[in-house]
Amino acid sequence: MQPRYKRVLLKLSGEALAGDGKTNISPDVLNYMSAEIKRLLAHGVQVAIVLGGGNIWRGGPAIKAGMEPPQAHYMGMLATIINALALQDALERNGMQTRAMTAIKMDEVAESYIRRRAVRHMEKGRVVILAAGTGNPYFTTDSGAALRAAELDADVILMAKNRVDGVYSADPRTNPTATKFDHITYFDALTRGLTIMDSTALTFCMDNNLPIIVFSLDTPGNLERIVLGEQVGTLISN
Ligand code: UDP
């Protein structure tokens, strides 16, 4: 069966890596994610991953507590590099070839991000892990995911969520009347103020016509079902 998507940008939040929250990075979660990602490679799908850092550090709360904003944001970007190394280790132990690339130079631990090299790695079947977001303070890794998806010509951004399986009209955890969308436009998502990704990232996706699928990684096989063209989660597009 031919996959619907040939090249995907998977966004994993930092929080997802923490699992039940007893540690910042759960080896069980890393193993589970690795197995899910491996199912994509079996179909010849090219995979780039952008990782968040919220399990270790986020700029926002530290800034509220008085820290200088750029300093706090750089710490967040460094947190994503720690996560990238952990995921790289798990993917490789699960038999995949990988390259970690960082938007902030750290030559001893990972390659610097160069767009054309990232493309070449994916063409060779390597999973490319993109760390340090955009490399710029004041942004988020959602913006990093949107930017890299555009640069790398990904067919779709796959936004993995925990405990929620798509985009709802309201928060389904607090509002029992909330209904799930199979599809929603960027404009609707923005004007309804739905918390899917931050508005800078969502606007970027809208301007560059980058489809997003919001889905739950908690259900085994979901990632594979999406690339094979099944209706899973919520599609955001024009
Ligand atoms: N960050 C940044 N620029 C970027 C990406 C991230 O300054 O391009 C900082 C920002 O402070 C953010 C933190 O890194 O709070 C962690 O990233 P994020 O909150 O996106 O992680 P997630 O919520 O996906 O775990």
UniProtKB/TrEMBL annotation:
Its main location: cytoplasm. It comes from the Bacteria. UMP binds at residues 53, 134-141. Residues 6-216 form the Aspartate/glutamate/uridylate kinase domain. One of its GO terms (cellular component) is cytoplasm. ATP binds at residues 11-14, 54, 58, 162, 168, 171. CDD domains: AAK_UMPK-PyrH-Ec. It holds the Pfam family AA_kinase. InterPro entries: AceGlu_kinase-like_sf (IPR036393), Asp/Glu/Uridylate_kinase (IPR001048), Uridylate_kinase (IPR011817), Uridylate_kinase_bac (IPR015963). Pathway: Pyrimidine metabolism; CTP biosynthesis via de novo pathway; UDP from UMP (UMPK route): step 1/1. GO terms for biological process: 'de novo' CTP biosynthetic process; UDP biosynthetic process. Keywords: ATP-binding, Cytoplasm, Kinase, Nucleotide-binding, Pyrimidine biosynthesis, Transferase. Inhibited by UTP. It is found in: Cytoplasm. Coiled coil: none annotated. It catalyses: UMP + ATP = UDP + ADP. GO terms for molecular function: ATP binding; UMP kinase activity. Belongs to the UMP kinase family. Catalyzes the reversible phosphorylation of UMP to UDP. PANTHER family: URIDYLATE KINASE, URIDYLATE KINASE PUMPKIN, CHLOROPLASTIC. Homohexamer. This is Uridylate kinase. The lineage of its organism: Bacteria, Bacillati, Chloroflexota, Chloroflexia, Herpetosiphonales. The gene is pyrH.
